[in-house]
Amino acid sequence: MSEQISQAAAEGQTAVRLDDVDRKILFLLQQDASLSLDQIADKVGASKTPVWNRIRKLREAGVIRRQVAILDPEALGLEACFFVLIRTSEHDKDWAARFLKALRERPEVIEAHRLAGDIDYILKVQVRNARAYDRFYQSLISEVKIHNVTALLSMEEIKATSALPIPEFPK
């Protein structure tokens, strides 16, 4: 595995070849990154040192970006989730730089994507309530010119996960 990861990273490939043990380790870490090395090793049927080496190599290859705690927004009083659809008539570098800066400075923007199609950007914004969203909106449009904004309030989160499907590669 280490040769495959090193070679892929050196060649700038986007996908890393994973064996079954790597996939098991990644699956476990996506479910609970607080598992100890002993627990992971036990669950994948390996010893602690090889598991640690695999995790280290997966980090070095960029497969594991970071480990974080996932917080409950409602427990923090952030009960309103808005999906914000943005259309802009501006597409130059200066506008894009100002827009990206504005998004990065706002912690309530928890996701932002540039899209293909009629909508240019979609944001996921987590705030206390509609008033907090309006303050966010007013602040954003005071910094960057936006042609059209549509805000959609999520009534219920049906599925949310940070776990990715781990692909299998042909052998």
Task: Provide the spatial order of strands within the biggest beta sheet.
Answer: 2-3-1-4
Residues in β-strands, percent = 15-25%
Give the CA-CA distance, first to last residue. Answer: 13 Å
How many structural domains? 2
| Helicity level | 40-55%
Class per helix and strand makeup = alpha+beta
Kindly provide the name of the CATH class of the largest domain: Alpha Beta
So what's the overall shape? elongated
Q: What is the strand tally?
A: 4
CATH superfamily of the largest domain: Lrp/AsnC effector binding domain/regulation of amino acid metabolism (RAM) domain
Describe the structure.
Residues 18-79 form the HTH asnC-type domain. The chain has helices at residues 2-11, 20-31, 37-44, 48-60, 93-104, 130-143; strands spanning 80-87, 109-114, 121-127, 148-153. With 171 residues, the chain is α+β, with helices and mostly antiparallel strands. It folds into 2 domains: 2-60, Orthogonal Bundle (Arc Repressor Mutant, subunit A), CATH 1.10.10.10; 74-153, Alpha-Beta Plaits. The chain has a 4-stranded antiparallel beta sheet. Strand 2 (109-114) and strand 3 form a beta hairpin. Helix 2 packs across helix 3 and helix 3 packs across helix 4 (48-60). The longest helix has 14 residues, at 130-143. The chain is elongated, with a radius of gyration of 21 Å. The two termini are 13 Å apart. Residues 1-10 have low confidence and may be disordered.
